[in-house]
Amino acid sequence: MKRNFNLLCLLGLSLGVAGQSLAQVKKFTVKANEVGAAVQPTMWGVFFEDINMGADGGIYAELVKNRSFEFNKPLMGWTVQGNKNEGDLLILNRQELKASNPRFLRVKVDNRRKGDLGIQNEGFRGMGIKQGLRYDFSVMYRQANAGVKMHLELIDSKGNVIGSTVFTPTQSGPEWKKQAISFNATATEPKAKFNIWFEGNGTVDLDMISLFPSDTWKNRPGGLRGDMVQLLADMKPGFIRFPGGCIVEGSDLSLRYQWKKTVGPVEDRELIINRWNFEFAHRPAPDYYQTFGLGFFEYFQLAEDIGAEPLPILNCGMACQFNTAEVVPVDELGPYIQDALDLIEFANGDVNSKWGKLRASMGHPKPFNLKMMGIGNENWGPQYLERLKLFTKAIKEKYPDIKLVNSSGTDPNGERFDYLNGELRKMGADFIDEHYYRRPEWFLENASRYDNYPRNGSKVFAGEYAAQSDKTVSVDNKNNVKTAISEAAFLTGLERNADVVHMASYAPLFAHIDGWQWTPDMIWVDNLRSYGTPNYHVQKLYSLNKGTNVVPILLNGQKVTGQDGLYASAVVDKKTNELILKVVNTTDKETEGAFSLEGGNRLQSKGTLTVLGASDTEKVNTLDKPFDVSPKTEPISVKQQGITAKLAPNSLNVIKVKML
Ligand code: AHR
After folding, report:
1. How far is the CA of 34 from the centre of ligand 1 (A)?
2. What is the β-pairing status of strands 642-647 and 591-597?
3. Using one digit for the tens of pLDDT, what is the confidence trace for 30-73?
4. Sign of the dihedral defined by the CA atoms of residues 406, 306, 496, 464, in that order
5. d(Cα 529, Cα 527) in Å, to the nearest integer?
6. Count of CB atoms situated within 10 Å of the CB of 173
7. For the domain that residue 37 is a member of, what is the CATH number?
């Protein structure tokens, strides 16, 4: 009896599967001849914020933490080695002479040998060191007479030396000098430390003690981590928004981002505490500062390198409204507005203009061709509008071609949003920045959000989106397949409405595995490695397949906005004469899609199908398994001008075929 029952079950199952697959052929029609809205070249971009050790300890490749002794605790990140007599190591403060970088270290070396007295830097949760690679050390120093030698050593986690050299400050006198030396590492180590042992006799003043790997992006000295920039470049982003995020606002106005303090020589850039240092009591990061080695010049340069339009966001005279909510009186807003005007001159101005000259002196006489900027990050209320209007008037008067991004607050709905959205549209805002940190279900339900938006007037910048597997600011949020696929479904709605939505970016961008405050994040790194999450691959697939114009794709004559768990959008690329379909299956069942063309266009006989997804919705990528969830491409045939494709469970499918 039991045996018969099992047999019946098996039969039932196989009949069910066969019946199911027949019932599940979905017939899509694509009208490639109805060429619709242009997809903006800016459509898919990236949002950079120095959160989660994104800049210092992340993409900014400096290995020495607190190189200028300006952290609140001047020796944070450093430990003294050997035997120190009272007064051997002193922190001096020349506040009156150099307010931007007042402190330095004075070392008295009194008949010392190697191993007697030294300092050690711990790096940002250690230093990532690669065997055979050249490391570039530099320091600013001052000494009355030469007489001190410095033994430089990289050590691994067991204390073995994995790279060393001897540095001798050669020049004497009252002026500060900068001197450099390079050496190679003999082993790979993710958590190295850096020793400086003093030898000889004399007193030496030290500042800006720096160590960089030589394999930075484009091998620029003092530059950015090559692997992290490469992940961005691979996305071919249409824009890069910087520098945030809440760090634009600051928890109070003294901690707002001030771009003028981030340009010029690095030793003159005044660091501040990073607001993410103390924002979350459950994720404290007492050593998190903004040294601005990655400053506005470097952001513009990065944008240019990766072919993205720069989109700087400026403080609008308001600190974070979740924190102090300080505002600048409107009659004192002048310097803030001037910062915005001067930034345009810094980016685009003639080399003879004040700020254009500074740009040229930093190595970029050609303009950066800035076309847009944001005023305010997540600001809201009438106090925001009051200030925004003053910025807008001044900027548009002087630079009518610059487009402005305005904030719609923190949420994509609710009273704050409705008020701002209404008012900004009345003001004729160029772009309204919408932020969505919501559960995956919200992303599915909102795939048709823009179908009924006004077609004229302000355009949407989907400036910060990320599906939250748990809830906003929960430490349990995961970058898993479920969140990525829900975002993929939502993005069909952005693409379908490319006449309304002109830009979109996931947020936050980077997170260091040992130094994060906020999750989920698009790209995760440790000191040596980095990987893209499934969410990264979704945004990248959209970006690499953006096409030039939207065309209709229908399921049973309707837009595909969730019927049977399916979502779809289609574009043509007029430059390459390709048809590109994006179809998202959000169910846990495989579905067969039959795609036919209506309207007379003809397709070549072969194309490609790229699939991203997994049956297990909890699946994630990790540093050890960085490509577990990544796109796979296979050839696909066109038969009688139709395509059939198996749409895997929980998958984004990109079908690409040349048109004849
Ligand atoms: O992306 C993390 C934070 O989320 C950003 O700083 C802010 O704009 C938003 O609240």
Report:
1. 38
2. antiparallel
3. 999 999 999 999 999 999 999 999 999 999 999 999 999 999 99
4. negative
5. 6
6. 10
7. 2.60.40.1180
Residue with tokens 């990525």: 484
Q: Which residues contact 587 (CB under 8 A, 6 or more apart)?
A: 564, 565, 566, 649, 650
Task: Give strand pairing partners of 38.
Answer: 549
Do residues 638 and 603 share a domain? yes
What is the band of 599 on the pLDDT scale with cuts at 50, 70, 90? confident
C-alpha 652 – ligand 1 centre gap (Å) = 26
pTM over 0.90: yes
Cβ atoms of residues 638 and 606 within 8 Å = yes
| Residues 247-293: tens digit of each pLDDT | 999 999 999 999 999 999 999 999 999 999 999 999 999 999 999 99
- Residue 17, Ramachandran bin (φ over 0: left; ψ between -120 and 50: alpha; else beta): alpha
For ligand 1, atom 3, which residue shows the shortest CA distance? 245
Judge if the beta carbon of residue 250 lies within 6 A of ligand 1. Answer: no
Instruction: Please check whether residue 495 lies inside any domain of the structure.
Output: yes
Indicate whether 36 and 57 sit together in one domain.
no
* 198 DSSP β-pair partners: 117, 150
Residue 521 Cβ contacting ligand 1 at under 6 Å:
no
Same domain, residue pair 170 and 277: no
Q: What residues are labeled active site?
A: 378
Question: What is the pLDDT at residue 13?
Answer: 36
Tally the domains of the chain. Answer: 3
Residue 243: cis peptide before it, omega within 30 degrees of 0: yes
Task: Work out the angle between the directed axes of helices 354-361 and 334-348 (0-180°, nearest 10).
Answer: 50
Tens of pLDDT along 357-401? 999 999 999 999 999 999 999 999 999 999 999 999 999 999 999
Domain hosting 29: range is 23-41+549-659
